[in-house]
Amino acid sequence: MNMRAFFIVLFSFIIPLPQATCEGMFAASAGQGSWHFLQQSIGISAMHMQLLHNDKVVIYDRTDFGSSNISLPGCHCRHDPGDMALRVDCTAHSVLYDVVANSFRPLMVHTDTWCSSGAVLPNGTLVQTGGFNDGDRVVRTFTPCEDDSCDWVEHPNLLSERRWYASNQILPDGRIIIIGGRNQYNYEFYPRGYNSPSTFRLDFLFGTRDDVEDNLYPFVHLLTDGNLFIFANTRAISLDYHTNRIVKEFPPIAGGDPRNYPSSGSSVLLPLDENKGPIQAEVLICGGAPPGAFARVVRNGIFTRALASCGRLRVTDSNPSWVMESMPLTRVMGDMLLLPNGDVMIINGADMGTAGWESARSPVTRPVIYRPINVNNERFAVMSPSSRPRMYHSAAILLADGRVLVGGSNPHIGYNFDAEFPTDLSLEAYSPPYLSTEYEPVRPRIVHSDPVMGYGLPFSVTFTVQQYLTAAVLSVNIIAPSFTTHSYGMNQRMVILRMSDVSPATHNTYNVVAVGPSAAEIAPPGYYLLFVLHAGVPSSGIWVRIK
Ligand SMILES: *[C@@H]1O[C@H](CO)[C@@H](O)[C@H](O)[C@H]1NC(C)=O
Ligand SMILES: *[C@@H]1O[C@H](CO)[C@@H](O)[C@H](O)[C@H]1NC(C)=O
Known about the structure:
Strand content: 35-45%
Helix content: under 10%
CATH topology of the largest domain: Methylamine Dehydrogenase, Chain H
Number of helices: 3
Number of domains: 2
Bound molecules: 2-acetamido-2-deoxy-beta-D-glucopyranose
CATH superfamily of the largest domain: Galactose oxidase/kelch, beta-propeller
Number of strands: 45
Structural class: mainly beta
Largest sheet: 7 strands, mixed
Radius of gyration: 22 Å
């Protein structure tokens, strides 16, 4: 061990770690991560968030809230006779947040984006679909740029159906599928195909409604066989969208509790490992609310305790069955995010009630980390708390440097700063324990990589590390960033790549040759964050484009 590492280890074990100092700037110990306040106000509440490949985050809420706290660029105003709150509105309802500079600028949306969905095309352009009122059939695109010139471009009437609370998934051929939404028991594609119907019926969505719906924002994951896993309420199917055929009906999640909006749990596809052949796919769903919870809040004002349970289903098994586990904290409206070390973060949400206006209380400020590779009962760890409640209409996304960007929370029908859970316009970052300085000696730093990764083709990455252990503790993985809204990160997926060679270059510098994903069903084309992991400690991510 060199002297520097020795002192770092000495420091972290002998000297007690600082406790909650600097007004929450650095709360609790490294073992539970730390919170950092980024912006007191970005002018809007972060209801929807997407990280783009230039490390800027598109954030938006809705246009019919009335005024936001940020003016439109260039003193523009929006004239919208159909707006329910404000016909002439000179405030912005979308911003672009620059992660590196920690700054933001207003963007212009013309029509209502409330409770909509999105996905990023293989070329890096964000496609946002639907919303409410005058915006429910609009597609909006945002193409990232290096200066301040880019803004939303709106394409009216591009959707064949109204899409409000729908879910999107990028497909292996680069199209986007848009599934469901309120009163929509069907799906469609962007771009729309020629010579084919524009809408495809999906009776499964009709069959999973209950008296309060509980099947909105269905959880959709692209499976390794190219079919789509779709989970709504308590049930799950595998859909062949090419032929509009349900290939398989999975057993309902054990316990019979609803998991989708407004009983919002969350879901991820666990990391796909190219080193295991055939590749296994597992879906994890956590949290939600018991049956009838939403109706009890809105009809009787009774707040029901949220669920503690998670269900894990190995969908590639021939007869899969749900394995149930218990989170250490109950949670509804938790966001689930894949972290670069393969763990799953569950963050934001509440302990009582459901999603919806004024429908929850008792915020859960402590994130939980789930370690899928550990044995059952040793998978969860409780992390240090945020200073802010992040309930209905909050969001969280992974950033390239491994932090988690957290914003929003607005359980009110308009902006209300004078309530028990006020409208929150701030941004915070949560740093998971792997970012702790005690891991610096073993943290890899990527110094070079190929910009483009081909399917099944070699890809080289060069990194430095102070203390190299062995190739056995090295891995290379890619993560597709999520479009997050309403406690669900659409399109996120992680692939652990095969490595074909590791060789030392100069002092402390190593070359790794990884192999691009085996197929577009494993990782659809587009921009991914690539991380090198050494002894479980991730590097900062760099952007690679898979073609
Ligand atoms: C937003 O603007 C309103 C009205 O000007 C003000 O009362 C409120 O404090 C502002 N909120 C934040 C978080 O900046
Ligand atoms: C990506 O493709 C879309 C749809 O064809 C197009 O509108 C957009 O400009 C393209 N973006 C880039 C960065 O070329």
